[in-house]
Amino acid sequence: MVMLKNISKAKFELILLPIADACISKEQREYIDFEAFFTHIIFHECCHGIGPYSIVLPNGQDSTVRLVFICEQKLYNRTQLDQDLRTGDSEVDGTETERGGFTGHPLCDLCRFPFYGDNELYTHMSTEHYTCHIFQRQHPGQYEYYRNYDDLETHFRKDHFLYEDETCLAKKFIVFQSDTELKKMTSINKQQFELMNKKQQATTAVVDRCTLC
Length: 213
Description:
This protein is mostly helical. Helix content is about 55%, strand content about 10%. Helix 1 crosses helix 2. The chain is elongated, with a radius of gyration of 31 Å.
């Protein structure tokens, strides 16, 4: 905190005050105060840590915080907004040069909700939806997304080999690429179950003998 205040003090004296001398009338310069400036800096830095990255809209959908200042935002009517979302070439978006290659906002095919850019869409898909790890292993760099785990489990059961043991179903994601792998896991689990039963029976026998003693 001491270091931040010292740096802020230097910026205040060497940058802000000379600008104020050039831009602010003499009558108002008495209101230029370092403590007020430093308090503003502290609140600004705190907002970086406590401000929301994502918000929930009134309709219940998730959205990210706006990435531009209010004065930089464009105003659309409904038709222009729909065109901006789809193709990015509404009259408000400007000329092709001004758009700089912008071709609309990416859409989540599962939620039907648009996002600011590819990074925001990828974050949404990675945190709100599910992918098949077997598909990713077979096709590096490609992704198949499912709305929720129920949909993903249906895919597992249809296209792969899902381990249908009740305990494993509750743990989720226990699925195999081939029938051979599934049979191997089934055999291992059966052996472990039989071994556990033998240990439990042996322990019970020891307890019974101790009780008789």
